[in-house]
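Lecture 7 notes: from sequence to structure.
We start with the chain below.
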Amino acid sequence: MIDLIIRNARLAGQDALTDIGVQQGVIVTVGDDATAAETIDLNGRLITPPLVESHIHLDAVLTVGQPRPNASGSLFESIAIWAERTADLSYANVQSRVSQILH
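Predicted structure tokens for the same chain:
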């Protein structure tokens, strides 16, 4: 028995419906005779990856405008500004800002 089976899910670009198993937070293959502690039937609804970008840089929190604002808003200027900012970075500085954000 696995933790969760999501039945009759539609995957983008595929016509056939599929079953998706989840065991301890990991997607696993599901056979037709599989059983689970919980089953959700999507009845052909689309299932997608999360729509959240969880990629964050905690080392950069609370540094907006330091050492100067990103006037162009471009990635290239942002990278150049961060290169300037790293001259003032220390473990204690990063730890302090990260702790403040997480609390």
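Points to note: The first helix runs from residue 75 to 85. Residues 58-102 form one domain.
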